[in-house]
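Renewal narrative, Specific Aim 1. Our central claim is that a sequence can be written position by position from structural information alone. The example that follows is taken directly from our test logs and has not been curated for this report. It begins with the structure tokens describing the chain, in the order in which they were read.
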């Protein structure tokens, strides 16, 4: 079964899939709580889920900001989560040399938005044979993510997803073009994902760290699903203010269930409307009343 694919949805059409977890690996008890919640939500709503977390945040705003446990300890933590919960795991890489060690543990590799044009990184990720989720750079038009996908495919990548996390609008703010999901899908043929938490980030908005507007996470996620996003990417934490990374743009873990429930409902409504429209068009074409 494909990793970046939803379960059976309305009318037999694919439903949503979920990529969720903490921004960065930290405490084993917290990681386990998050993973178990993701399993429960996935089971309750029939939404296939992937646990995501970074072993190293190499692009923090300040040199003094926490970066995570590092490659070796981080991969050990991901292996424990996978073994304890059965969830497939995803992590991001920042250097080509991290690809093979990460792929030995992770079920999927992620390319950060800031690095989405780095050819050597894309090639290294593709050559692992793992599914790859590549985030669209914040300066990049939706259709231009096709260049990154082309590099991945040329290097042998099979399953690929593309993620929208917003476009730079002046200084310190991202905006999300809801046309992106249709445009990216047409340009690449890949499933499209909406990163609902990084989209509300305010880069450098808190001085030595990024700020955020988490009150907009849920409404943007619902809009993205209505606009055709196939998957949802959400960073969650039991106590967002205590998260060592991206605290200001993280969704409270307790809100994940409600968010997924609403997004599944929107996906079903949109799919049902689309199916009815296609049926009416077909009947009109054949003269069936």
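The sequence written for that structure reads:
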């Amino acid at each position: 079964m494909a990793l970046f694919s939803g379960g059976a949805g309305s009318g037999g059409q694919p439903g949503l899939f979920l990529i969720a977890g903490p921004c960065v690996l930290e405490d084993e008890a917290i990681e386990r709580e998050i993973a178990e919640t993701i399993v429960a939500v996935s089971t309750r709503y029939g939404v296939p889920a992937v646990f995501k977390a970074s072993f190293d945040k190499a692009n923090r705003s300040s040199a003094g900001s926490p970066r995570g446990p590092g490659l070796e300890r981080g991969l050990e933590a991901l292996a424990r989560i996978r073994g304890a919960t059965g969830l497939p795991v995803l992590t991001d890489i920042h250097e080509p040399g991290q690809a093979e060690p990460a792929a030995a543990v992770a079920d999927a590799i992620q390319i950060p938005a800031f690095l989405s044009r780095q050819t050597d990184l894309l090639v290294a990720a593709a050559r692992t044979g793992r599914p790859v989720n590549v985030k669209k750079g914040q300066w990049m038009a939706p259709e231009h993510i096709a260049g990154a996908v082309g590099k991945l495919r040329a290097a042998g990548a099979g399953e690929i997803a593309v993620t929208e996390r917003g476009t730079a609008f002046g200084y310190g703010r991202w905006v999300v073009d809801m046309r992106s999901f249709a445009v990216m899908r047409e340009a690449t043929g890949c499933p499209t994902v909406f990163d609902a938490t990084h989209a509300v980030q305010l880069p450098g908005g808190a001085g030595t760290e990024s700020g955020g507007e988490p009150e907009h996470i849920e409404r943007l996620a619902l809009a993205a699903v209505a606009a055709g996003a196939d998957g949802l990417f959400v960073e969650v934490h039991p106590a967002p203010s205590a998260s060592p990374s991206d605290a200001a743009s993280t969704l409270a873990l307790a809100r994940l269930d409600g968010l997924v429930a609403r997004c599944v409902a929107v996906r079903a409504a949109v799919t049902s409307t689309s199916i009815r429209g296609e049926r009416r068009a077909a009947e009109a074409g054949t003269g069936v009343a």
